[in-house]
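S., here's the first fold you wanted:
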Amino acid sequence: MKSEAQEISETVASWFHYKSLTGLNGLLKESSMAVPIAEYLASKHGREVESEKAHPLFNSGGQGRPKQIDFVRVKHGDRTWHSAYETKFKTRNFDLIIGDLCRLLCLAQAVDVGNPGRFLIYAVKLEGDGAILDNKFNPGGHNRISYFENILPRPNTVGKNKDCVFKINELHAKQRSSFRKFAKSHKVELPSSVRVKLSGSFESGGFSCAVWQIWAQKGSTLLNHKEILK
């Protein structure tokens, strides 16, 4: 039996492929992902699914648009959360994607939401060699590495596991800076050790969708921005 994450990846990639065939390829954007994800989750979980749910840690009445989780599956009985989903389309911006990952990680510190499963859903129109999230930086020396190396296991990456554990303070400084920036700007702490699993991936008509599940690794401690190394 396929996992929900795998079915979501198939739904999103296939839907984008279908829409590209109807001439809407140039109009596809992140908000376009809401349709296939909402329809899939609603078909499985009905009224338990809510979209654009206020993030329980980042809505203290400040100015601007309140920060939200893209989709949440809420338990009927006690209103705690069964699952939370953040989505990204096309961007390879490291800060933006790490921001979504951190928003999911922070849910463990929220009151009254329980311990939901946390999923990051990423879709893209593949280009070039078909690699997903292949933007790289020079860590010093001759070999460039991916910004997402040791953070997000990626589909079609030869010799890589689908499950990884990383410690924030053992990442390269260019990677750590995004975690530190998020912790500082949102006044939150992040787990020192994170586990990420590639739980679903699918390609259709040149579109790819990956779904990662995210946890704080057992035994990790919480780090504020000052404790995340520069």
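And the second, which I think is the more interesting of the pair:
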Amino acid sequence: MNAESPNAVDRVEIDAPLDLAFQGVVRLVVGGIAEQANFGFEAMDDLQLAIERLLAETESDGRVKISFELSDGAVRTRIGPLREGSLTAALETNGDTTTLSLARILSAVVDSFGVEPATDGQIVVRLEKLGTPRP
């Protein structure tokens, strides 16, 4: 974190292949980001789960940019561009409590999430996780 100002925002961005072989690398990066944000284990695990599950639901075989903004005990993440397709439907909360949908998982593990349009039928997914500091 930036020690110069308590309201400073640190930003990290990665460009990763959407290939199962790189999931461990993405998980490692997310863990490092959570460490920098001084998250406790549960908050770190929640953020890792949210990103892994979101990437597992994508219908793409290309690359994705994942950006992280760290500030005031929070990590704001932007993931995209991703193909809209079934991902948009998976992110809709329809009140169904019988299935473990992507929207239900994200609602449980991050503090907020949303979708914004990108180009050519693609979207960017925003996640925000407020940290639970380590003891």
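Why I say that: The mean pLDDT is 85. The chain has four helices and five strands.

Talk tomorrow,
H.
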